[in-house]
């Protein structure tokens, strides 16, 4: 993290009428040039965070700093940033070109330059052929892309995007994710994007801020968030995850890993001394793809009864019960032909060699 962030939220809280807590003591540094994503369930405070940064909402406590300068009291148009709103907020009576060029006309940019830059921005979002269309004639996904073009055309230092791809179909969405990332590196603009789609956040972001109930749970790079979630909420929110109550079985030896859940040996990679005392209980995170179905008697394997088999394309997702009653999910690579597994089967399950598995703090 750079020492001097472009933008800093310093202890920001926002209370709405009726004592609704929108944000609760949020500290966040955003580095210049980074692609930062706010990720979390509906109502966790993502839009409120963007609105506080943009100046549409004034915090009840805390400060907003830009380049180290307190901008908490500045009005939205006095801040060097642009916002793509969750509901697009396009001008319905204007053409696509007029919508995109609007910010430039406010700045009294010469007409010819307005037209050129609007056309370029529309080209970037794949809507060059809609330049003369009226907004009412566009689909939801097309409107969303016009809103994006309108925001980038002014070349702001900071671009705030609230669910900018939510109205697009899966295929176009993936294509636009790549475009958005490419655009961001090309412009060198700092992007702060909101999404509740964890796959989108993982594929596009330099860092992800996971929010829950008006607070930040964890800020990390995508791979760190995936491999080393710090809280049970993050572990559950990012991809499928087994959270197993496990007991430490003694000192680590090659043949005797320290944790066991229903007989399944879980060799925790991170060395956090607390879990090493025999008898200690911890919650261990294991990804479904890090569990394998193996032969009975394999080292560290435990029996489990399959309760359901779900087709997941490249893998079969097995839901199963361990001997101690805990439920586990295993992603078994799919072979050609019929599924070798059925509900009711007893299989043996073990941790894949070299798998990453981690104890959450108690
Ligand atoms: N203007 C407002 N007045 C009162 N409460 C509000 C207002 N704006 C937001 N809230 C409340 O603040 C909380 C956070 O809302 P916010 O819009 O930031 O959520 P979000 O994370 O963007 O959710 P979503 O994914 O559904 O868009 C919610 O409980 C919401 O009801
Ligand atoms: Mg929102």
Automatic annotation (TrEMBL):
Please state the protein's primary subcellular location.
membrane
Please give, as recorded in its UniProt entry, the membrane topology of this protein.
Peripheral membrane protein
Query: Listed GO cellular component terms?
Result: ATP-binding cassette (ABC) transporter complex
- According to its UniProt record, where is this protein located? Cell inner membrane
Question: Known SUPFAM superfamilies for this protein?
Answer: MOP-like, P-loop containing nucleoside triphosphate hydrolases
Which keywords does UniProt give here? Answer: ATP-binding, Nucleotide-binding, Transport
Q: Name one Pfam family in it.
A: ABC_tran
Could you tell me what this protein is called?
Spermidine/putrescine ABC transporter
A single GO molecular function term of this UniProt record: ATP binding
Q: Which family is it part of? A: Belongs to the ABC transporter superfamily.
Q: PROSITE patterns, per this entry?
A: ABC_TRANSPORTER_1 (PS00211), ABC_TRANSPORTER_2 (PS50893)
């Amino acid at each position: 993290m750079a020492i001097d962030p472009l933008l800093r939220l310093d202890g920001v809280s926002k209370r709405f009428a009726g004592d609704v807590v929108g944000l609760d003591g949020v500290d966040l540094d955003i580095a210049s040039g980074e692609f930062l994503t706010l990720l979390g369930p509906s109502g966790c405070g993502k839009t409120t965070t963007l609105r506080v940064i943009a100046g549409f909402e004034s915090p009840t406590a805390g400060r907003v700093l830009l380049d180290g300068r307190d901008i908490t009291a500045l009005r939205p148009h006095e801040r060097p940033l642009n916002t793509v709103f969750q509901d697009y907020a396009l001008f319905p009576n204007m053409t696509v070109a007029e919508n995109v060029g609007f910010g430039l006309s406010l700045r009294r940019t010469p007409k010819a330059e307005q037209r050129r830059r609007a056309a370029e921005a529309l080209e970037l979002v794949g809507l060059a052929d809609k330049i003369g269309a009226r907004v009412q004639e566009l689909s939801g996904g097309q409107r969303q892309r016009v809103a994006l073009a309108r925001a980038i055309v002014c070349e702001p230092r900071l671009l705030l995007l609230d669910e900018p791809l939510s109205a697009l179909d899966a295929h176009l969405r993936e294509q636009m994710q790549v475009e958005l990332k490419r655009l961001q590196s090309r412009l060198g603009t700092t992007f702060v994007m909101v999404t509740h789609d964890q796959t989108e956040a993982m594929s596009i972001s330099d860092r992800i801020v996971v929010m829950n109930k008006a607070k930040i749970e964890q800020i990390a790079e995508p791979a760190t968030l995936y491999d080393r979630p710090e809280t049970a909420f993050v572990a559950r929110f990012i991809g499928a995850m087994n959270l197993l109550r496990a007991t430490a079985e003694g000192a680590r030896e090659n043949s005797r890993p320290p944790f066991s859940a229903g007989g399944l040996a879980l060799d925790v990679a991170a060395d956090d001394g607390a879990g090493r005392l025999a008898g200690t209980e911890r919650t261990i995170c294991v990804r479904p793809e890090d569990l394998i179905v193996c032969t009975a008697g394999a080292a560290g394997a435990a029996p489990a009864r399959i309760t359901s088999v779900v087709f997941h394309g490249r893998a079969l997702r097995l839901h199963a019960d361990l001997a101690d009653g805990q439920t586990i999910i295993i992603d078994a690579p799919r072979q050609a032909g019929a599924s070798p597994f059925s509900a009711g089967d007893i299989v043996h399950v073990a941790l894949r060699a070299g798998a990453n598995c981690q104890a959450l703090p108690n």
